[in-house]
Amino acid sequence: MKDLHFKRHRRLRQSASMRSMVRETQLHTDDLIYPIFVTEGTNEKNEVPSMPDVFQFSLDLVDAEVDEVVSLGIPAIIVFGVPNEKDDVGSQAYHDQGIVQKAIRQIKANHPDLTVIADTCLCQFTDHGHCGVIEGGKILNDPTLDLLAKTAVSQAKAGADIIAPSNMMDGFVAAIRHGLDEAGFEDVPIMSYAVKYSSAFYGPFRDAAHSSPKFGDRKTYQMDPANRLEALREAESDMEEGADFLIVKPALSYLDIIREVKDFSGFPIVAYNVSGEYSMVKAASQNGWINEKEIVLEKLTSMKRAGADLILTYHAKDVARWLTTDK
């Protein structure tokens, strides 16, 4: 043995303190964005059946939820609306008294320093559940752009700090950037769902937002999960059109895409740890099959390691508590 020469990598793993000193990737509370679902009515706190510990809140109850988020040090939320009324063009998405607009005004009044992101799409607000205008069973791209721009402007008027369009229409960032600039909101950034796959991981979210399509699917506008180079083309288009952040959605099965988009763009990258990824962990934890804390921290760290700067996750409140406790 005395004549053997080999590297002793274990020297740097001998204690928790030593491992912490050489840790390459750090997960922080500042990295987190927490989704909040707001709904019409009063005294409504409805747990999403497929998403344990995730609720829809009416406006009279949402303040308590936001207060908790702020107390945990989470710097940003994204607001999704669940309206009572839907129509074929999703008019409640861009109504000044729409549920999202009312929620933004209320939240910003109580927490002006909290970064409030508005999800900008039509699917929760259309009676057909698609993200655009329908004609003859076809989702029309260009007429949809006008409605998305109107939605973004109405959300900015309500006080949204960031607009996050999630529809995947061609040219949606350019249309929204133009609309915001024309309305005097040139300083409001766009967090584009630049790379959004047509994924099976979205099922629980559609329960939460009541946004399942009534016919067909979204494969004509969301991306094929088999494609890698297409993600770079989509990201490049959004960069050229004026995006300020790029979202990759889902996250866990697309860590390679997160890394490539980060290296390619140099933009701030947001990993969306989606509902299916969340619910699988919750279900396994409730059955006693896994250690929830260890699994969640490991998977979110993997997203940071892959290149994500921010993580949009339903685990955010738990993660903030765990990070504080560990510290």
UniProtKB/TrEMBL annotation:
PROSITE patterns: D_ALA_DEHYDRATASE. One of its GO terms (biological process) is protoporphyrinogen IX biosynthetic process. Keywords: Heme biosynthesis, Lyase, Magnesium, Metal-binding, Porphyrin biosynthesis, Zinc. 5-aminolevulinate 2 binds at S275, Y314. Mg(2+) binds at E234. InterPro entries: ALAD, ALAD_AS, Aldolase_TIM. 5-aminolevulinate 1 binds at R206, R218. It catalyses: 2 5-aminolevulinate = porphobilinogen + 2 H2O + H(+). NCBIfam families: PRK09283.1. Belongs to the ALAD family. This is Delta-aminolevulinic acid dehydratase.
